[in-house]
């Protein structure tokens, strides 16, 4: 298996070769390809294919598979948690800097819908810990999520509470250069009309939607209408499942993202458990490249 260092060198060589052939294929075509690549990039979240990989293993596997970026989910084998010391955080930053893999951000389980005020406060404070962690490690944001409605709150009050909590963590994240990425998630709260209602309270400009490719996206008036409800608040991350299962219209989603001038990461969140993870990662990257065009 090739090391991270050798693959980095190989990418430099390939980049040089691409420049050398620019006179043959034509500058306009190369610029168009480069522009497309800069807008839609393929990466992965560690949930679930990367959950058992240490950080060195994760970086090496992603490099071999050509995965350009990774969102680290909390409580996985990579061990990147708020308990890391300053020196350990520098080590994480350096490991990413020395590899071709970017640290896209952090996948937290922070949620703000509880009818227990202390629990909501604890989740807000935990989000702030993750924000500082990503700032120190070189990430660009923290993923949070609505996770349903609380039985102890009215629907309207719960939505406002989630929105106000998001405003607080978004303002805090802005101080550290970290985006807050609201994953479309949760029973009831994953419906796009509900996300739109949350955004009516959560107006901070550092709060962005992370599209999550849920089957509920296809309900109501369909994918395009649901997409339009939140496209103005899209950030730079989209979560997808395996792209070749045929259970979600990914070709249509990619076209909607392009039409919305989306620039960012298509992050694989695969729920299967293939024996050969690298082979599966390569396969999904190749499917993504065909979809992106």
From TrEMBL:
It holds the Pfam family AP_endonuc_2. Keywords: Isomerase. It comes from the Bacteria. Residues 65-279 form the Xylose isomerase-like TIM barrel domain. The keyword Isomerase applies. PROSITE patterns: TAT. One of its GO terms (molecular function) is isomerase activity. This is Xylose isomerase-like TIM barrel. It comes from Novipirellula artificiosorum.
């Amino acid at each position: 298996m090739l090391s991270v260092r050798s693959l980095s060198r190989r990418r430099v060589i390939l980049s040089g070769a691409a420049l050398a052939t620019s006179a043959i294929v034509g500058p306009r075509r190369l610029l168009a390809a480069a522009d497309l690549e800069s807008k839609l990039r393929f990466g992965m979240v560690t949930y679930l294919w990367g959950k058992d990989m240490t950080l060195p293993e994760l970086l090496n596997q992603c490099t071999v598979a050509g995965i350009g970026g990774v969102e680290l989910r909390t409580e996985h084998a990579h061990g990147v948690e708020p308990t890391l010391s300053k020196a350990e955080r520098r080590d994480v930053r350096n490991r990413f800097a020395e590899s071709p893999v970017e640290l896209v951000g952090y996948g937290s389980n922070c949620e703000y819908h509880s009818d227990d005020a202390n629990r909501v406060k604890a989740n807000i404070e935990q989000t702030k810990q993750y924000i500082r962690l990503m700032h120190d490690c070189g990430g660009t944001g923290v993923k949070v999520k609505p996770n349903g409605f609380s039985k102890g709150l009215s629907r309207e009050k719960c939505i406002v509470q989630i929105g106000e909590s998001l405003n607080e963590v978004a303002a805090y994240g802005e101080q550290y250069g970290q985006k807050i990425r609201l994953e479309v998630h949760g029973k009831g709260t994953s419906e796009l009309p509900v996300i739109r209602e949350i955004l009516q309270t959560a107006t901070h400009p550092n709060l962005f939607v992370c599209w999550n490719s849920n089957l509920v996206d296809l309900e109501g008036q369909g994918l395009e209408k649901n997409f339009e409800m939140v496209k103005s608040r899209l950030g730079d991350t989209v979560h997808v499942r395996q792209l070749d299962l045929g259970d979600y219209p990914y070709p249509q989603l990619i076209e909607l993202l392009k039409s919305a001038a989306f620039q960012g990461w298509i992050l694989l969140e695969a729920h299967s458990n293939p024996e050969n993870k690298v082979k599966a990662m390569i396969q999904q990257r190749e499917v993504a490249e065909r979809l992106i065009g």
